[in-house]
Fold this protein.
Amino acid sequence: MKKKRVVVLTGAGISAESGIRTFRDSGGLWEEYDIMEVATPEAWERNMELVLEFYNQRRKQLLEARPNAAHHALVDLEKGYDVRIITQNVDDLHERAGSAQVMHLHGELRKVRSTLDERLVETLAGWELKKGDRCRLGSQLRPHIVWFGEPVPMIGPASELCTTADILIIIGTSLNVYPAAGLVHYVRSGTPVYLIDPDDPGMAQIAGGTFIRERAGEGTPRLVRQLLEQAASIEK
Ligand code: OAD
């Protein structure tokens, strides 16, 4: 029997228990840093060193982090479902846990790209990208991140994917940043939607959804067990 498709939309909250800071919680990154100073094309033009330093610190922290129970549970879910992850996260914890299909909406921290030709993307060996590090065409390399004010190239494929979901799971996102937050509206009406978050990021947006008010590391393995039991009982 063809497996049902589960689309999972993840945000910074799924990586919080791996020690990676979220953006908008108290103690979040945007309390300490001004978005406009570190995460926009204008910031890059004005103060490249500060932008590089901001992402170097994030990358350094990522190399020390490990996937947590929530990332691992989503890998287990593949035993019973066709699981497609759409993540706003720039970390690689879904991949390191072993998820087969991961789409990054906002770029990837461990990758850098040419400022001359955005198709020239490479993986950085360590954590540090420096002023003067160049692509093979000779231009400065920049973080492979979608900054505020830049187009989100993967939003088309991501919305398309949402229209094919049999189940949607949303984990650890404040649903504050568009166009990513708008993806929830692309699922077909009547599709079961689950939202896992210790705070309410806006359940009102998700008519008829099930709100699991827990941390990702608790709520995700439990929901995964429940969905796998459902899949097994349908197969019998
Ligand atoms: P936010 O920091 O806006 O939201 C994090 C969400 O995770 C909040 O709803 C928290 O309640 C929740 N959360 C915290 N701890 C959690 C835990 N242990 N388990 C589950 N949930 C938890 O992060 P995002 O929604 O991912 O973009 O932010 C979206 C985008 O804004 C990011 O991709 C980034 C940021 O600016 C760019 O930098 C382009």
